[in-house]
Amino acid sequence: MKIKAPRGTIDFLPGRIELWQYIQEVSREVFSRYGYAEINTPIFEYTELFLRGIGDTTDVVSKQMYTFTVKDDKSYTLRPEGTASVVRSYLEHGLGAAPQPVKLFYIGPIFRHERPQKGRYRQFHQLGAEAIGSQDPALDAEMIVMSMEILQKLGLGNFLVNINSIGCPVCRPTYRQALRDHISPSLAKVCPTCQERFEKNPLRILDCKIAACKEVADGAPKSIDYLCPECQTHYAQVCEYLDAFKITYRQNDLLVRGLDYYTKTVYEVESLDLGAQSALSGGGRYDGLVAELGGPATPAVGFASGMERILLVLEEQGIKSPHSTAVDVFVISLGDAVRTQALVITQQLRQAGLKVETDYLGRSMKSQMKQADRLGAKYVLILGEDELAKGVVQVRDMQDSAQTEVPLSQVVDRLSQNAQQPAKA
Ligand code: HAM
Description:
Blueprint: H1 17-33, E1 37-38, E2 44-46, H2 47-54, H3 59-63, E3 67-69, E4 75-78, H4 83-92, E5 102-111, E6 123-132, H5 137-153, E7 159-165, H6 172-183, H7 192-200, H8 211-217, H9 229-244, E8 249-251, E9 263-271, E10 279-285, H10 289-292, E11 300-306, H11 307-316, E12 329-333, H12 339-351, E13 356-358, H13 365-374, E14 379-383, H14 385-390, E15 392-397, E16 403-407, H15 408-420
Parallel strand pairs: 1-5, 7-8, 12-13, 12-14
Antiparallel strand pairs: 2-4, 3-4, 5-6, 6-11, 7-9, 9-10, 10-11, 14-15, 15-16
The structure holds histidyl-adenosine monophosphate.
The site of histidyl-adenosine monophosphate (HAM) has 27 residues, from strand 6, strand 10, strand 11 and helix 11.
């Protein structure tokens, strides 16, 4: 029986990987312009980090973690998100002593044991950013604008920004109670998971997808009506900045997010082109997480986007990587006697900076030409025994089929100049 890739994972093959790389290239460029430096943390951490950081009442922690022990009997978990790891690293390396805020971004794999479907995988990839060490609402707005800019630069436009504020430890308990009071009379109607959420995490009932729960959530008290003065001012400022940046957003009273560390602003960018799994990016403020993980009270805000979801929308919209995969030169060698010289020229051209391919299957002249065509070669270089004896090669311009004889000693210079030119119109 053939072994397949595990369910919910994706092999990115050539033909698709170019667009994947382009998503990373655009993100890196945007992150760097906004002052974020790249951080790379391990893909597994001690399980404790996520239990404390994300919260054990969340689905991510209680149902979706890939947790394992190895010989030392310690419990490890493949990271189910990036924020807790970045905060762990910030504390471990004393980044609190650096000028604040510390602005970091990451790109890498994330693991959640979910039921796979289109746009939902067990290994997926996030590109995300965290700004740690400031409570300035300008950073909340910056996260939203920056995640939108990445999507827009990639060519996407059909999306919606949902935002909300879910308050802080001062005002949330009152809101939580108001919510319980609203749900309590209909508690028997909500799904078993939401019944469990009722005591510990009633906010999550608001974004349950089950019809009965949605009905109960309808008309529920809104978190923005329960904000303390500090949270109110903060949220008003975030909205004012977004208005000033001319960002269209929707106040979504039901947006609560699936991770426990959020305080104040939460947001999600929703694609109007994806089906059920429509969240392209999500994030928000998490002013309590650094302290929760053992550091001093330190405000922070961040977001992450799902790269597979971005890729799906780009593909659906027919958007391609602008980088050509075509080769500059294809070197055709005719016969064993010229093979070594053909390989030397191939090597020299590659070292001169050109993208060069040659034949490795002893193909005929005709099928080498076909292969050159398939690879989109700008130039084909033909080396036979006659040419070698005369110390020349034939250089064919694939656009106009013009063929010229060039001395072997000049071919590298000549082609490296020509191939750098834009293709003839
Ligand atoms: P999250 O909303 O859990 O947030 O994930 C962020 C994004 O990852 C989602 O909007 C979605 O695009 C993508 N995503 C999530 N689960 C899957 C999946 N199973 N398959 C494919 N894509 C998926 C976080 O992870 C937070 N750490 C974001 C954050 C950073 N908040 C503050 N800083």
